[in-house]
Amino acid sequence: MEYVSTRGGSRAVDFEGALFSGYAPDGGLFMPQSIPVLDGATLWCWSRLSYPELVKELCSLFIAPELVPRRTLNDLIDRAFSRFRHKDVIHMSRLKDGLNVLELWHGVTYAFKDLSLSCTGQFLQYFLEKKQKHITILVGTSGDTGSSAIESVRGQQNMDIFVLLPKGLCTQIQELQMTTVIEDNVHVFAAHGNSDQIDEVIKELFADVDFSRKYNLMSLNSVNWSRIMVQIAHHFYAYFQCAPSLDTTPLPVVEIVVPTGGGGNITAGCIAQKMGLPIQLVAVVNSNDIIHRAVQHGDFSASEHVKATLAPAMDIQEPCNVERILWLLSGCDGHLVKTLMEQFTVSKSLKLPEDLHRKLSETLRSSSASDEDIMQAMWRCWEENQYLLCPHTAVAAHYHYSQLDSCASSTPRCCLASASAAKFQDAVQQAGLVPQLPPEITALTAMETRSTALQRGEDWARVLRERITAVVRRWEARRGGSGTPGLQGGAGQVVMQG
Description:
- The protein is α/β, with parallel strands linked by helices and 498 residues long.
- The chain has helices at residues 15-19, 40-46, 51-62, 70-80, 113-131, 144-153, 172-179, 195-207, 209-214, 225-242, 264-274, 290-297, 322-329, 334-347, 354-363, 371-385, 391-405, 425-430, 439-442, 460-479, and strands at 3-5, 30-32, 91-94, 100-103, 135-140, 159-166, 186-191, 217-218, 254-259, 279-285, 364-368, 413-417, 452-454, 495-497.
- The strands form three sheets. A six-stranded mixed beta sheet has the order 3-4-12-9-10-11, sandwiched between helices.
- Strand 5, helix 6 and strand 6 form a beta-alpha-beta unit.
- The chain is globular and about 65 Å long.
- The relative contact order is 0.17.
């Protein structure tokens, strides 16, 4: 299995190359050169697997055994999931009137990103131990990515992680989950700006090819193929849990409702579709509705301002993974995708070609929810089930309730639950409900914190360059080395963005 850029201008790489590259050298995103298609017999066999076993089977399709032997791959994935609180790693809650909620948040930070990032951290460590190299992980977060990325690599000797969070735009718990990790290899920056401004600085550092190569920059956000790969398993598990039977021809369709910010999870769903999984995908967004407008009208244009909502991890106006979806739907047309994305980069406005818009609207349904919609969904779910939803999951529940009330469809439906309500006390209280806090969350407020402020008007890129340089020199001094030679994968980058 080799990986190619969505923009068609970079050489193909293997999984290791894609893992350590984040963005492709031509600015595109890595995707598998071919998508494996599963037959009905394989789907039937997989339907009996646990979630960890599904992850192992899927990863083995995308990672050559010459790179990671199958037994080693299994061990890495078992290690990745060893800190999850639920015995099954993820859990399906079946609620009133067909509201099926797939809880993806039983990891250390109570967010779905723990699933893919814990695996990615293990893959990184495997290759780094073999090569005895150092990497610098650069992460921009809108909420949950930062803490999940930190937990995936904390304490590792050959990785330093730099996390930029938007000060005041994460919840207090999200911020504390990052700033209370006091480790030598963890460096948290509280930026006085929004997530898109943070992403601009990160892109600037990665675009500095000399700096990126010298310090082996990489990221752990959903730009990184490894995260998309693991997230494909969510859709297979959801399907197998909700499909009434796999003994019919054709197989029944299940609707999977995906809270969508940067677009990583919905991209994973599109790949699962291409692999032969009979799912209908619904991308649900908050008031930052660029993906909804793209699906409905072909209008992929950023609004003038990011709107702060009750679902802050979805407060994104430039969802990077839409590029992967457009590449899939265009028949892997790198030239077209390059032209479209370069136009969007310059103008922040893009009208999709008619044929591409038609394919997008056939592949995805979409819906948006206001803060009022979110609160009403949270309240209704509690009243009917005594079950607390996080505001992001409530965006999915809002779609379910709208379909239920209009008697629109009898198709089985699964809503992906991206985080625990415990992380969003303010939203729970605004919905007129009482937060339920586990002791691990409560303990955060009494812990020591550490972060560096990035003020408005300050040159954030300069500050980061200076800190990264100092940290890597310290690592070199400890190792007695004279440099950090580049790793496989273009510029030796790894990017994680939330």
